[in-house]
């Protein structure tokens, strides 16, 4: 390797050890610098008589790995071609390493103008029982191993032009892994955010105390990357979403969740995903000069089963979501949702129920969005819908009392007496929609909106029919 530079080579024949100091290696888009590389435990017998390399330990101290992506794809094609040629040559020996250890390393992935896309402040990595031979070298992962461990802290990831992720600590082992202190944040404030997108887009802020992963594995299946895990557990999450609806609409077709999973560029299988004690706040600025409407889901507990886009059995499993929360910090809400990823029409079924919700809490999203104030209480709501990517059918039953509407003037602060009187002529102030009142509703989906807008359209249509 002519690209490899070092200051000193020290060989201790009788101790079966060798050491390189002050290593510099630059090959293609990758640059590696390290204080020291130590090799120990060479099996002389296998080396001299079998031409195989059998080592006890390779230890690399303070490696700094810098990967700069190319501005164009030509170098990438060259590297692929080079790899292809090397594979054709094959490997006429076996390499065994009991332990490959990287101590106190650093990693940086940059784009073509040297802006950080991924940065790891420090990491420790160990790979056990590494084996490379003429068979493994032909695979997409050109080596085999028994186990590995990774401990990294202060990880930075640039998600897009507007958001970044920081993780305080990651520990990855063969059977159990843990992420702690995850923060997904917007680079810009709510006001500045709109100057960096030509159309309406969600601004995210997410904090998660910890994510635990059990029994996970990765590899390839039919040339596709595959990741499987038995359980994901997300603890203490706080998720804030903000959207400015005064921006031009994003009129692209929004896929259903089943389609998004189906079209992932890799194979995914998570048996169970648990969410423990989450809070979700969605804010929507609908009119300039008005406060945004706000929807809150507190104390969210949920479980997703069969989160997968492939199946090894004949029958494809149904993805199911069961969740409960305090809607607007008050009403107990339960949700049951199911869909099948392999269903090309994107079939789904969703049902749930909600307890007592006061109009005072509803006004935080009714007033900014619809320019009305409500009085009274919804005492219960039950809904059940099913459908596909085009249309949904179902029903909704609501019980309520002392329900009244105040229509506001354009400034949103004063009541319009005339319009309020007219509105309350058509609104039933007390009632309970019987079981068959809303049965058979049909709702056509606006495909430029998300699934959650689709579900809201179902509930809104049922509610309006009940109140009027």
Characterization of this structure:
- The protein contains 7 helices and 23 strands.
- The chain is an alpha+beta fold and 468 residues long.
- It folds into 3 domains: 1-150, no CATH class; 159-342, no CATH class; 347-468, no CATH class.
- Strand 7 and strand 8 form a beta hairpin.
- 14% of the residues are buried.
- Residues 74-88 and 416-426 have low confidence and may be disordered.
Give the helices and strands, then pairings.
Elements lengths: L3 E2 L2 E5 L4 E11 L2 E11 L3 H6 L3 E9 L2 E5 L5 H16 L5 E16 L5 E17 L14 E12 L4 E10 L3 E11 L3 H4 L9 E19 L2 E21 L12 H6 L4 E19 L7 E16 L10 E9 L3 E9 L8 E7 L2 E2 H12 L1 E16 L3 E17 L9 H10 L4 E2 L8 E4 L6 H17 L1
Parallel strand pairs: 5-7, 6-7, 13-14
Antiparallel strand pairs: 1-3, 2-3, 3-4, 4-5, 4-6, 7-8, 8-9, 9-10, 10-11, 11-12, 12-13, 14-15, 15-16, 16-17, 17-18, 18-20, 19-20, 20-21, 21-22, 21-23
**Structural class, from secondary structure content?**
alpha+beta
Contiguous helical run count = 7
Total beta strands: 23
Distance between the termini: 80 Å
Q: What is the element string, with H for helices and E for strands? A: EEEEHEEHEEEEEHEEHEEEEEEHEEHEEH
Count of domain modules:
3
Point out poorly predicted stretches: 74-88, 416-426
* Largest sheet: number of strands, sense, barrel closure: 23 strands, mixed
**Helix coverage percent of residues?**
10-25%
Average pLDDT number: 87
Oligomeric state of this protein? single chain
Strand content: over 45%
> What characteristic shape results from the CA principal axes?
elongated
Radius of gyration: 29 Å
